[in-house]
Amino acid sequence: MPVQIDQVANRRLIAAFKSCGKTRGMMTFSLIDMGTAYRKAKVDLYYSTNPSLDRIAAYETDLEDNLTDLLVRINGESESWVHEVDFLGSYTFLPKSVRFTQGEEFLGSAKFSNPGMAWRNKCNEAQSAESAPPVAEFRLMAECTLDFHVLSSLWISKVGHKFDRELSTSAYGSRLRRRKDKEINSLSLGSFAPYLGPFQKWRDSGLGAMRSALMDA
To answer: What is the pLDDT of residue 74?
Structure first.
C-alpha cells in the first residue's frame, strides 16, 4: 500500500523550505545543518511512543554518508524524490488493546504480577467459560525513514518555528523549544518542549475554568 501525500501541499512546503536555504540563488544548507537536524530528530524519536532504536543505530553506521546523500538531494533541483516510498517509508500496526467479548465476568479471579502468566490465565478462564476468543485491536502508525525525520527536523528549524511562533499561549502541546528571547533554540536537545508540564497546566487551567463557571452559574 503506497503512502499517499497531498501533492499540492507538499510542493508548497518544499518551495517554502528551499526559499529559506537560498541567498541570491545559492543554497546555504550545509552538513552542519544536517548534523544538527539529525541530533534533534534522534532525540525526538527516542522520546516518541514508537522509538526506532534499531533503525537509528543502523543509520549511524554510515551517518556522514547518509546525511551527505540527503544534503545533496535537498540542495538539488529535483523534488521528485520526496514522493518516493524509499524516502517516505511505510506503515506498521502496534498493539492497542485486547478485548474479551464474552464471559468477562469470569475473569480476574486471580492476580499475577507476571504479564505472561496473567495473559495465559485470562485466556484459560475465557476458554473455560466458553466465551468467544479475545479480540485484539491495533493502531495504525507511520513508519517513516530516518531521512524523512531528518528533513522534518530541518524544516522545523528553518520554517516550522515561524508557524509555532504565531500560536497563542492557549496552544499547549508539542510546542518548540525556545530561548529566553523567544527565538528558536537551535542547539537544544530535541525540537519540542517537555510534554508533562504543559499538559498539567492545560488540565489544571481547564478544571479551574469549569469550577469558575459552576460558581458563577
So the answer is: 93
The C-alpha atoms of residue 200 and residue 191 are separated, in whole angstroms, by 20
What residue spans of the chain are helical by DSSP H? 7-20, 31-46, 53-60, 63-75, 85-88, 115-128, 146-155, 161-165, 196-216
C-beta atoms surrounding 213 within 10 Å:
9
Q: Distance (Å, rounded) from C-alpha 204 to C-alpha 201?
A: 5
Average pLDDT over residues 165-187: 89
What tens digit of pLDDT does each residue of 1-32 get?
A: 334 445 555 565 566 555 555 544 445 799 99
Query: 148, 156 in Cβ contact below 8 A?
Result: no
Residues 6+ apart with CB under 8 A from 154: 17, 29, 33, 34, 37, 74
CA atoms of 21 and 74, how far apart (whole Å): 10
Residues 177 and 161: their CA atoms lie apart, in Å, by: 9
Query: What residues contact residue 33 under an 8 Å CB cut-off, 6+ apart?
Result: 71, 154
pLDDT recorded at residue 198? 87
Cα separation values, 113 from 118, 175, 216, Å:
7, 38, 48
Grid look-up 537551535 returns 186
CA torsion sign, 152 to 153 to 156 to 159?
A: negative
